[in-house]
Write a structure and sequence with these properties.
223 residues, 43% helix, Rossmann fold, single chain, seven-stranded mixed β-sheet, 7 strands, 20% strand
Length: 223
């Protein structure tokens, strides 16, 4: 068994034991695949991690940048207690429509609001609305814009807010200083901004599994 097959097998072992089969979430993944959405959904173990982080943090006001078909959205939204709200931003009208159907399927339409359009524009609109600060922000969209998303996350957060950035290792490509991939350069700049930002304390974790070799950043807003 090569290392990739072993990663997948371990993921399956963990999932079988700790992440019970959920018919609704399975239907969402099937609907996303049927609609030919990119297979960029978080894994079930990653989804469960997001859910646990929301519960541990007791988050009541979540911002998600990058909806796709709403799979990660549902993991996050299900962790909210009564009265909690989630805003998720999606550039693609097609993806957003599929996400809305999936959110309705999970009976979470009263909790989740999908906004379409370029995320930078949506973030400006949220700021213009004087929306209350978010206490949990999940960044999982076009990686070349991660630096801008981080800056907006800071503007829309408060001390104690938790910011998570996904896909920040990319099979180790993040080490390539001369990469001509704008996603890699966006992630490198994302790291640099976090490292030089006195208002947050952060770390990053490398991950392996059914989604390959990648990782995520976690930053806590301290002031």
């Amino acid at each position: 068994m090569n290392h990739v097959d072993k990663w997948k097998a371990v993921d399956e072992y963990i999932t079988d034991l700790l992440v019970p089969t959920d018919p609704i979430l399975n239907e969402v993944l099937q609907a996303n695949a049927k609609a030919d959405l990119p297979a960029h959904d978080v894994s079930s173990t990653q989804g469960k991690l997001l859910q646990l982080l929301v519960q541990i943090h007791r988050a009541q006001n979540i911002l998600e940048i990058g909806t796709l078909g709403g799979y990660s959205t549902l993991w996050l939204a299900r962790a909210l207690s009564t009265g909690g709200r989630l805003i998720t931003l999606e550039a693609s009208e097609k993806h957003a429509e599929i996400a809305r159907i999936n959110i309705e399927r999970a009976k979470l339409s009263d909790v989740v609001h999908v906004r379409t359009g370029m995320a930078i524009d949506s973030l400006q609109q949220i700021a213009n609305e004087n929306h209350e600060p978010f206490d949990f922000i999940f960044i999982d969209a076009d990686k070349q814009n991660n630096p801008a998303y981080f800056e907006w996350a800071l503007k829309l957060s408060k001390p104690g807010s938790l910011i998570i950035g996904d896909n920040v290792v990319r099979e180790g490509e993040v080490l390539d200083t001369s990469s001509d991939d704008p996603r890699v350069q966006g992630i490198r700049r994302f790291y640099e901004l976090i490292a030089n930002e006195p208002r947050v304390t952060a770390t990053a974790i490398q991950t392996v599994g059914s989604k390959g070799y990648d990782g995520f950043v976690m930053a806590l807003v301290t002031e």
